[in-house]
Amino acid sequence: MFDACRQVVIVTHVSADGDAIGSSLAMAEYLKKKGKMVRVIVPNYFPDFLRWMTDADKIVQYDRHRAAAKTYISCADLIICLDINEPARLDDLATPIVASNAKKMMIDHHLQPKRFCDLIISYPDASSTCELVFRLIDAIGGVGQLTKAAAEDLYAGMCTDTGKFSYNANDPDIYIILSELLRKGIDKDKINRRIYNNYTEARFRLLGYILSEKLQVFPELHASLFTLTRDELSRFKYLKGDTEGVVNMPLEIKGMKLSMYLREDTEKPRILASLRSVDDFPANRMAAEFFGGGGHLNAAGGNLPCTMQEAIEIAHKALEAYRPLLVDSHASQG
Ligand code: 5GP
Ligand code: MN
What we know:
Layout: E1 7-12, H1 18-33, E2 37-42, E3 60-61, H2 66-75, E4 78-82, H3 94-99, E5 103-108, E6 119-122, H4 129-139, H5 148-161, H6 172-183, H7 188-196, H8 201-214, E7 216-218, E8 223-228, H9 230-235, E9 258-264, E10 271-277, H10 283-290, E11 294-295, E12 299-304, H11 308-321, H12 323-327
Parallel strand pairs: 1-2, 1-4, 2-3, 4-5, 5-6, 8-9
Antiparallel strand pairs: 7-8, 9-10, 10-12, 11-12
Helix pairs in contact: 1-4, 1-5, 4-5, 5-7
Bound molecules: guanosine-5'-monophosphate and manganese (II) ion (MN).
The site of guanosine-5'-monophosphate has 11 residues, from strand 11 and strand 12.
């Protein structure tokens, strides 16, 4: 597929994260070095803490540059869909992608991939799509050609999708891959600082507000919930990505199994849900049953077309429905 193509479009999911942007830019870099014309298109805004990556400034944002993006898509002979398992994750960008006659390839680590691509590379056990991109390049003998910039991108995605290698990161091969990336000369300490020590003052204070004013803990359920309305977000000069990762923090409380975060979307009239869990608590099942979404066992999300008050009621119903699994405290103590 790579040899035959000339013009490549790479797409990834709405509200792209480190794994989405990292895998897209690394794949783009690899294919550009092979002489291909490559464009990365994302559905909407992606966070500033990812903009240090080489060529991040060349990413086309579909919600702002529709005509240009459509032209690139119509000229493409290969479309690579990264870190997504279904067209819905592309939001409005799904329409021109699904309609395109180009060959399509999916590289992803979410469960139950939908069959909208000619070639599907799906490994739900993988830590990240970046890990899969590395493995693919390795399998076709390309690691020698991998540049330092691509190695930085892949490191960033693997690091962010595993919470700095603290979950989903027991596969020993991950550390062999990391060693290969470090051999490319990347400065992982600096990348960590660029991603994590990059708070604005407002974002840092929002974190304090969440933890001291908004977090509700349900000790007997080993669960917690926090919510943020648009008003609260604007009080803290919220920018997309500002609360990225915060949903993991309540899991640092002893014995916690589940953390729930509900946020009023700043673009559409809906509530976005983020769920994080530990051990075998199925956050993805809860997301599918109650929040119209899905995801991984321990990291899932969804969205609800309702008010915050209604979403909070749904969250309480979800907690009640999963009470038997939550009250049993043995699983998380290990
Ligand atoms: P986050 O909480 O970071 O927004 O999302 C965590 C994970 O949940 C994502 O990697 C994705 O797998 C899944 N997810 C989030 N939102 C949705 C959604 O609306 N639909 C589906 N199917 N999965 C979602
Ligand atoms: Mn991912």
